[in-house]
Amino acid sequence: MEIYVGIIVFVFGTLLGSFYNVVGYRLPKGLSIVKPGSFCPKCNHSLKWYELIPVFSFLIQKGKCRQCGGRISLFYPFIELSTGILFLLSYLLFGLSVEFMISILISSFLVIVIVSDVNYLIIPDETTLFFSFLALLINFVFYGWKEGLESICCGIFLFVVMYFIMLLGNKLFKKESLGGGDIKLMFFVGCVLSVTNGLFAIFLSSLLALPISMYVYVKKKSRLIPFGPFILLATLVIFLLDIDIFAILIG
């Protein structure tokens, strides 16, 4: 039975991953995520249902549009497969529980931000508001008013901390060091992690981003990298591994 549920969770994740591609590509450009339906960006061919099967359609069509033969980016199946794997991992670790719901929430936000931030260096406010609302709703419904209010306070605190980090970075580098989307993102982090773990997420995300930053600076002579995905990746790692940095620090 557990195997069947795992398969369903994985397939459901890949289906959502396909939708998250649409959200990540369209929202930053102010386009509707509902209309028009999916289409080939090269020839505008409207895709049929059998051309939209996550991962499999890409493999069957050999990574090409059936209409014009144009190459389809590997980014699409990567996001679909990654979402499915993250959903399955969440199920294997937490089962069908509240923690599972929070884990797939973080995973969903992560893959959308990867699409939008990597391609446009934008984290749409709509996604931050939506996922923050869902995280708060879960806290209030399943953990009660006290936990819900604490998560709001934690989110505000982490938002303020990130804002001051931005001010400090701007002063040191004499240019914009963090985007507004990254700062707003910390409110969501506060909704799913404790204050201490949220602060650790900032530190861990900086470590994760450091090698990429060095590569981009050396190869492309640019200091602009999408930092949002690293924040959410660090958040997901802390949540999945059930890290309590405060307990670790006090021994």
Helical residue percent? over 70%
> Rg, please?
19 Å
Mean pLDDT: 90
Elements, N to C (H/E): HHHHHHHHHH
Span from first to last CA? 40 Å
**Helix count, DSSP H or I runs of 4 or more residues:** 10
Strand content: under 5%
Low-confidence stretches: none
Indicate the overall shape: globular
Q: Count the strands?
A: 0
Q: What summary fits the major beta sheet?
A: none
Q: Based on helices, strands and strand pairing, what is the structural class? A: mainly alpha
Keywords:
mainly alpha, 251 residues, 0% strand
Summary of the model, kept short:
This protein has 251 residues and is mainly α.
What is the strand and helix layout of this fold?
Elements: H1 2-26, H2 56-60, H3 75-94, H4 98-120, H5 125-143, H6 145-173, H7 180-192, H8 195-220, H9 228-240, H10 245-249
Helix pairs in contact: 1-3, 1-4, 3-4, 4-5, 4-9, 5-6, 5-7, 6-7, 6-8, 7-9, 8-9
Descriptive notes:
The chain is mainly alpha-helical. The protein contains ten helices and no strands. It has helices spanning 2-26, 56-60, 75-94, 98-120, 125-143, 145-173, 180-192, 195-220, 228-240, 245-249. Helix 3 (75-94) runs antiparallel to helix 4 and helix 7 packs parallel to helix 9. It is globular.
